[in-house]
UniProtKB/TrEMBL annotation:
SUPFAM superfamilies linked to this entry: Ribosomal protein S20 (SSF46992)
Record NCBIfam families: S20 (TIGR00029)
Gene Ontology CC terms: ribonucleoprotein complex; ribosome
Protein name, as recorded: Small ribosomal subunit protein bS20
Amino acid sequence: MDQAVAAGDKAAAGEALKVASRKLDKAASKGIIHKNQAANRKSGIAARVNGMDA
């Protein structure tokens, strides 16, 4: 995802965001990370992707 954001490829970054969100949710549901930690990480990566427009 970082590569897509650095390259300015919004479509690829959006797809990477979906994949990352799913993986974070799965890790939280299995107890690997806390659900709030997953939410914080998803929020951070979503902000980077959404900030590409600005």
